Here is the input.
Amino acid sequence: MKTSLVFATNNQHKVDEIRAVAGDLFNIITIKEAGIDIDIPEPHDTLEANASEKSKTIHRLTGKNCFSEDTGLEVAALNGEPGVKSARYAGDGRNFQHNIDKLLLNLKGINNRKAQFRTVISLILDDKEYLFEGVCEGNISEEQKGLQGFGYDPVFVPDGAAISFAEMTMNEKNKYSHRKKAVAKLIAFLHDH
Ligand code: IMP
Here is the structure.
């Protein structure tokens, strides 16, 4: 029987991206569909600890098999920032555009634009936790381009591409994406389990 997993996120972009990769391989139930309406906390200073906290919170509330993911943009010239603070880089209550503006300002005049997205997935299956990681290396562009996707997509150009994530369709982004790579490991694990 197909495995059903509650996905501990309120971010519809993440749900769409992972559903596109998972296809028929497993069934994703959003927390909204599971009848839960909470803002899941991300209080820790590593992606691993935040992902773990999110899946454990949802597991406590639903008792169901579930997974979560936490993603950060790690910029080499900024010592790995914004990293785990990617969502709140420009401060609490600020939006994606404020975060991009701050990033481009902090990189002004800097030639080393190397960066990577890193995703950590925490899966809770039959009361045990498993972690999976996916990394996508690339560069931060000088200017933002494109309207697709979310977050830092308009300023991130993955290695091997000439356009930003925000200029790609979701399926194109998934050829490179950190999240796709982490989900591929999750799928392989579920397949073998
Ligand atoms: P979260 O804490 O995992 O929800 O993600 C932190 C922040 O990283 C988000 O608010 C986005 O700004 C950014 N982010 C996560 N994944 C992506 C992505 O695939 N593309 C662009 N930005 C992303």
